[in-house]
Fold this sequence. Notes:
Elements: H1 5-36, H2 48-65, H3 69-92, H4 99-128, H5 142-153, H6 155-158, H7 162-184, H8 192-222, H9 234-245, H10 254-282, E1 285-288, E2 293-297, H11 314-324, E3 331-335, E4 340-345, H12 357-364
Antiparallel strand pairs: 1-2, 2-4, 3-4
The protein binds arginine.
Amino acid sequence: MPPQPIVEWCYLKSVKYGAAGVLVGHPLDTVKVHLQTDDPKHPKYNGTFHCLKTILLKDNIQGLYRGISSPMMGIGLVNAIVFGVYGNVQRLSEKPNELITHFWAGSIAGIAQGFVCSPMELAKTRLQLASQIDHGMMFKGPVACLKHIVKTEGLKGAFKGLTATILRDIPGFSCYFVSYEFIMRQRKQPSIPYTLLAGGCAGMASWLACYPIDVIKTHMQSDSLGNLAKYNGFVDCAIKGYGKEGIHFFFRGLSSTLIRAFPMNAACFFVVSWVLDFFNSKGVDMVVNPDKSLNIVNLENTNLGLQTCSSSPIDKLVRKIITNNNLEPSYDLQLTSDEVLRCSVKSYTNTTSQIDSERFTEKTK
Length: 365
Ligand SMILES: NC(=[NH2+])NCCC[C@H](N)C(=O)O
């Protein structure tokens, strides 16, 4: 395996493309938060589109984009933690290709990102609902909002909703990765549209798995600060919400979440698989056999356990390696098994340190 510039790379990519996803998805996130916190006795909104329209008419496009700076600033870090932790846990486990491993790796990633995600979403939620909470106080941005919270409530205040965030994201991310893997495994060579479909479905499945906990999280994070707080914690919030409105409480805002989840996560997985493709094309390993034939291990689909939609035909890849290693570029290429490509090199000038047979055997085990 290559060393870990992967984290840096993923970070830079996810900042860029994560930000694009946030830009597209934020209005529906705002709708979700408003629907979740609407008063069931005197509802202001009667559905996703009504809510969208009402906010637009009242507050303009600004109303829908309020609070966006928080996920904009945090999404890169959150995604880097999610995909970095998930990938490494999955890769280093004993059975990296079993679905159950993806499940555990996703859960651990969900816990790890919670510590950044929770304050990020706290600021986001409070900015989105600015006109209704904090005495209608308008903060300049997420940093000003969190500063105010830390000043009045202490550091603990900035982590309001942490338990709910982690409890949401354990099922959220385990379901996210398991469903993505499962859908991708239905195809031998997933096309680009298929990869987008898999990512979109994984996003929707993950929100279905954790939505009621997300409702509680939003209520915890939009609750008044200090002594004025309505809820005494996660369980108290769930009981009070259920008591007030029954099971319906846990599902308000679900449709806007699902609509948002599809494009957002289709794009997210697509970018990730594209980034990994880049590494996979470097992660091809090879060994020169005593008979001067060359074995090339195609690491595609093993790196970070994500299946990729490779745009680079293996043939091109092999050519690159051959030239990079100053090998004679004419070769016969044949597939000897799913993972191992054997190509005989007519002649070669030198063997670089990249070529070592032990790594080869380990990877094909
Ligand atoms: N419930 C979850 N956290 N699911 C994972 C999806 C995360 C993704 N960034 C989204 O907001 O759609």
